[in-house]
Amino acid sequence: MTRPLLRALDRSLLEQPAHEVAPQILNLLIACGERVGRIVEVEAYGGTDDPASHAHRGPTPRATIMFDRPGLLYVYRSYGVHWCANVVAHRPSEVGAVLIRAIEPIAGLEQMWAARPAARRPQDLGSGPGKLCQALGINDEHLGTDLLEPGAAVRLVRDGADPPAHPVIGTRIGISVGLDHPWRFSVPGSCHRSRRW
DNA sequence: ATAGAGATTGCCT
DNA sequence: GGCAATCTCTATA
Predict the structure, then answer these.
(1) A116 touches strand C (CB under 7 A)
(2) What is the pLDDT of residues A121-134, one digit of tens each?
(3) Where are the domains of chain A?
(4) Which of A6, A30, A31, A169 is 20 to 30 A (C-alpha) from A147?
(5) Pairing state between β A184-186 and A168-170
(6) Are A103 and A132 within 8 A, CB to CB?
């Protein structure tokens, strides 16, 4: 097995509506220190016109970063317990982000196991938005990190893998409004996705 | 001020 | 399958 060749991302990839960006970041790598995971499931969230989005009511203290530059990391607290990670993504002057819902562990597995004592199988490490933040060690200290900046604490990079030509598409889960949008995407066949499709 | 819902997870029965 | 944990924001007063 050869070392994967890592390439920087072009920011223009993220300067499109979140629901167009979302399937494009499948199979990218997210890295925090030595810990690396492959993104296998995402959901897109829009701006004030998306009732399920944190940005629906405008730039609240929590959601302000969704109005900021594409490529920044949006971390929020879920149910007062877990951290969840998003990539800010939208057209200029618009609003949106892509929630990372599941990763396949790639490197730093020992640290991931240590960070997730409840995990029993490898797919328990990152098969959910809260789980993958725990596994990677992402928390509110990383809020606003530029994921495309070399040397940043949390990075988004590409290796040899392209996004799937035909991602699995579904409606977003865990929400009660905005169910009409088919904005959940995952890598076909991955056993590291969150809930059953 | 206070109450209730929420982009979740893990432990209990 | 039920439910607690406990932060952020909204609605109501």
Answers:
(1) no
(2) 999 999 999 999 99
(3) 11-186
(4) A169
(5) antiparallel
(6) yes
What is the third-level CATH fold of A11-186? 3-methyladenine DNA Glycosylase; Chain A (3.10.300)
Residue recorded with tokens 């060690």 = A137
Please count the residues of chain A: 197
Residue recorded with tokens 């969704």: A66
A183 touches strand B (CB under 7 A): no
Q: What are phi and psi of A68, to 5 degrees?
A: -90, -165
Predicted TM-score (pTM) above 0.90: yes
Q: Point out which residues pair with A157 in neighbouring strands.
A: A29
Nucleotides of B under 7 A from a protein CB: 5-11
Q: Enumerate residue ranges in chain A where pLDDT < 70.
A: 1-4, 196
- Please tell me whether any atom of strand C lies within 7 Å of the Cβ of A62: yes
Using the CA of A100, give the nucleotide whose C1' is nearest. B7
Instruction: Determine whether the distance from the CB of A173 to the nearest atom of strand B is below 7 Å.
Output: yes
Nucleotide nearest A74 (Cα, C1'): B7
